[in-house]
Each structure stands twice: as C-alpha cells, then as structure tokens.
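Quick one, probably user error.
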C-alpha cells in the first residue's frame, strides 16, 4: 500500500510517519520550504526519512513567502507570540491557507504516482486556532478533491481527535526518536521554550510523564 504523507519535521508528523509504516504503508513523504522562520525543521524531516529509508522530497516554495505575509512564521516584522498555544494571540502564527496549499500539491503528486491516500498530522489541540486542521475542513477538502479530479483521493488525518499528549504516548510506543524532531517556531539554535508550540510540547511531555530529550532556552512549566 502506497500513501503520500505531509511531514514538517515536527513531533506530530514524525509520529504519523512511524504510524503509517507500522500500518504497512509505503510512504512517499513531502516536506515544504515555504519561507518559514523555522525552516530548520526540514533538516529534522530529512534525517528521519533517511534513517527510515523512505522516499522524501523537499519542495522549495520559498518564493511564496511574499504572498503569505502577516503571519509570525513568514513575516520577520511579526513577533512569534509567547503564550499558551490555545491563546488568541496564537492566531498570529496562522499562515494563510498553508495546509490547503500543501494538500493540493500532494493531491497532484498522489495522482501522478497512482496513490489514493494522503495523510497529514492535524490533531485535536490545533482545532481552536487553525481552521485547516478541523474535521470539517478535511471533509470539505475530500469533497473538493474528488470534484476536481477523476481519480478518487482520500485525505486522512488519523490524529484529528487525538491530543498532543496522546501523540507523545503513541510516539513513544512506536519508538520515535523525539530528539530528532523540531517544534519551536522561532527556529533558533535551541528551542525557546516560550512560544506556543514549545509550550504545547512541554505540556504534552509533562502530562504523559515521558521525558522530552530536547533542551530549551527557557524551560517553562505549562
């Protein structure tokens, strides 16, 4: 069984890659450089794919950055908010239509390779801030894809009802090398510990009582 999987290099998509392999799929992995502040995540994706010996392509969409401004991830003049990941300030990290852009590219890639399943790692904690990580969006994108193409494509987000804590537990069961994942939106030499995604990660590991191997510039209690 072949599938396409979107992978950032973060904890969620890395766990998802291990999960699809465990399910018996042969993954064709897509990662994207869209000019994100934390593009170092792509190196982590590359390392994991090399270790697991899976097909991996990094698409260079860096020029698209100038079209997707106003987000803390794509605009240097917008500061990365240092608050809990569910706080309204985290709206600043929304990149307009990002997942939809990536998924539509993945659809074309899947059709070209006669693959009918695409996996991505949207999870339950994302629902409050990111519209394109909600179940309603996934359903809608499936409908749109099958109206736009003769080939039937199924977009699957198996973690959409799972919390970050549950993903950490699953990752541990699957043997994910958490030290080879990158979550921090600031993209510095060391994870900051205070941006929303760092706080979310720290919280998840603390709740799961599993040790996070990453070092943080500031180790906050969630």
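Nope, works fine. Designed sequence:
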């Amino acid at each position: 069984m072949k599938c396409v999987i979107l992978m950032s290099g973060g904890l969620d998509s890395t766990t998802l890659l291990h999960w699809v392999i465990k399910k018996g799929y042969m993954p064709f992995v897509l990662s994207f450089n869209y000019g994100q502040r934390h593009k170092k995540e792509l190196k982590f994706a590359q390392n994991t794919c090399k270790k697991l010996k899976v097909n991996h392509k990094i698409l260079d969409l860096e020029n698209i950055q100038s079209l997707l401004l106003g987000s803390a991830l794509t605009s240097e003049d917008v500061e990365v908010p240092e608050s809990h990941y569910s706080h309204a300030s985290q709206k600043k990290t929304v990149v307009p239509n990002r997942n939809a852009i990536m998924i539509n590219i993945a659809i074309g890639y899947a059709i070209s390779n006669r693959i009918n399943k695409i996996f991505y790692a949207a999870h339950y904690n994302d629902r409050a801030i990111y519209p394109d990580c909600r179940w309603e969006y996934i359903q809608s994108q499936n409908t749109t894809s099958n109206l736009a193409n003769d080939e039937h494509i199924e977009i699957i987000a198996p973690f959409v009802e799972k919390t970050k804590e549950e993903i950490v537990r699953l990752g541990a069961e699957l043997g994910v090398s958490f030290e080879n994942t990158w979550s921090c939106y600031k993209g510095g030499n060391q994870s900051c510990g205070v941006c929303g995604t760092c706080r979310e990660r720290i919280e998840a590991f603390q709740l799961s009582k599993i040790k996070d191997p990453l070092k943080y510039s500031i180790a906050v209690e969630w």
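Residues 2-78+95-163 form a domain with the Rossmann fold fold (CATH 3.40.50.620).
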